[in-house]
């Protein structure tokens, strides 16, 4: 982050998380942000001087996979403990704190992985108002065997004699377990004890504050340069567009490649929001015909995906070439993308940018520097940011939607006729299930109540069947309804929709969509099926 942006933060409001290569290092920063204190992850090898320049209110040392005695083990500048800033270490963070302050860390006979029962030993502000026995999440092979001078042990488990240690006089605290994961029953309480009780912070951080900070960062990074962005209609690219536009106004041009595979109403929403509401310079490329020609005769799902994906960048770079002096490409990469791509193993932003850069198929001789302002945010933070920036809920709370769009919900060849049928049927499925979810929300007050549908859509198979409408025999298409409950798309179950809801969808589709005479419901979980049909 630029120093210019940090000036916007009032004194002692930033909690810095030093990243020792923790698998989900951002989770710690995120939990702190959940408690409404601003936090960000930085590489562990920053010097105490560099850290002091950031003026942090507190420092957290993350976990990490290495052994403190391994060659090239990530280390901390010992002067960090002399800054007078409260420090909290987790797992590897506890071990490195112990080691650098004169304690001992050893390989222990038995590692500890998963839930463990923590037993408190002594009064502790960090563990205040948590039970004397409680469940915590452990994942370690090494452990602190002797605490540094001035420290006391405040908790242990059956296999770990130093499960928590502290030196309250110097405001240094550490745990062998992971308070940031939900399996640690009182993890959030411990973090709030640290932030509010020990560091004396106030829960004042807001999404508006985050928006302002990101805007300042983008301004500092972009300067006078021009930026281009590929708008897909999805949540992430829309939020980046709104954010970058807020930061640098007309220096941003958005290119929206309309491949014709979006759902009904989506291209219009993109136009309405970005051209009319935000007044962003928008290039709307009408590529529908080009895509239909490209997909003619193609039935293999992977080939459809490949053609749509590579054509997208081809069209995008054709448009980019028409714009003068654009140096930067803004991308809606979010933190889970980085985890999924496996790009990020240790701290440091540079490696992230580089690996993502490689994912974009730049044509020979073409180069843009990337800016990825959302790369440390989780999906729900991105959505909340979108609302703060004034994007409509229909865009921000949009369901997951595959990049190749409706092309992979049409089994077999994609044609204009099939696309027309699917768009109409899909609209009905979404209208009916939006209403069903809204009723559940009204009854339960919970957006994610047990039976609310997470993703729902129509699929058009490549078959026809016989029916009768009026007095006439029909030979027309069936529509498949897919509706699933899930939290992360890794696994899913088919939604146990009430019969009257299913019946309502079915009657509307056959009555309103020409060319359809039958509706079926997919009752397969994932696994063994996938959510999409192709
Ligand atoms: P499956 O079908 O594998 O889908 O169970 C899991 C989730 O991913 C979405 N999906 C995609 N998203 N590009 C995307 O951005 C794709 O090519 C793609 N394919 C599937 C799917 O909608 C579901 O939410």
Give start-end ranges of low-pLDDT stretches: 1-12, 343-358
Number of strands: 19
Distance between the termini: 41 Å
Widest sheet: strand ordering = 2-1-3-4-9-8-7-5-6
Biggest sheet layout: 9 strands, mixed
The secondary structure category is alpha/beta
Residue-averaged pLDDT: 92
Q: Tell me the CATH architecture of the largest domain.
A: 3-Layer(aba) Sandwich
**Strand fraction:** 15-25%
Quaternary state reads single chain
The set of bound ligands, ions and cofactors reads: xanthosine-5'-monophosphate
Instruction: Give the count of structural domains.
Output: 3
What is the CATH superfamily of the largest domain? Class I glutamine amidotransferase (GATase) domain
Share of helix, binned: 25-40%
CATH fold title of the largest domain: Rossmann fold
Q: Count the helices. How many?
A: 16
